[in-house]
């Protein structure tokens, strides 16, 4: 069994790649606004009431629901509860959270010793 040790620089390269991924995902983040206003209103309503949160209610009274399963907007609604309801807070919990986590996930998926090819 051939066990190779990782070079010292590999951890720092992963940290640098994660930082670069976070910067690139956050680039021009304020220009995004609320995205789709229909789902933004549903996420706002879901962030104000736990009943609306679990049933995916569009309006604050919880009468009408959105055309998606409620779980599709749960991340945005929780982001609204944590960061406040504004464009940056709404996008911060969805796009950047998923995108920033993708870099270490992709690094973990690559088998060790598979790079560079041809070795």
Distance between the termini: 16 Å
Shape: elongated
- SSE string, helix = H, strand = E? HHHHH
E-strand count: 0
Unreliable stretches (pLDDT < 50, length at least 5) are none
Task: Classify the helix fraction into a percent range.
Answer: 55-70%
CA gyration radius, whole angstroms: 20 Å
Q: What is the strand content? A: under 5%
Mean pLDDT across all residues, rounded?
A: 77
Structural class from helices and strands? mainly alpha
Number of helices: 5
The major β-sheet equals: none
Walk me through this protein's architecture.
This protein has a domain at 33-109. Helices cover 58% and strands 0% of the residues. The chain is built from five helices and no strands. It has helices at residues 9-26, 37-48, 50-55, 74-83, 87-109. The longest helix is centred in the C-terminal third of the chain and has 23 residues, at 87-109.
Summed up, what is this model?
With 119 residues, the protein is an all-alpha fold.
Key features?
119 residues; mainly alpha; 5 helices; elongated
Secondary structure elements and their pairing?
Layout: H1 9-26, H2 37-48, H3 50-55, H4 74-83, H5 87-109
Helix pairs in contact: 1-5, 2-4, 4-5
């Amino acid at each position: 069994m051939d066990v190779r040790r990782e070079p010292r620089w590999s951890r720092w390269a992963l940290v640098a790649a994660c930082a670069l991924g976070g910067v690139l995902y956050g680039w021009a983040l304020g220009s995004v606004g609320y995205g789709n206003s229909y789902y933004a209103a549903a996420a706002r309503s879901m962030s104000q009431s736990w009943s609306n949160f679990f049933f995916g209610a569009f309006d604050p009274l919880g009468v009408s629901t959105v055309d998606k399963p409620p779980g599709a907007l749960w991340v945005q609604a929780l982001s609204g509860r944590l960061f406040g309801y504004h464009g940056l807070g709404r996008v911060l919990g969805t796009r950047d959270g998923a995108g920033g986590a993708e870099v270490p996930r992709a690094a973990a998926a690559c088998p060790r010793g598979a790079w560079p090819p041809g070795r």
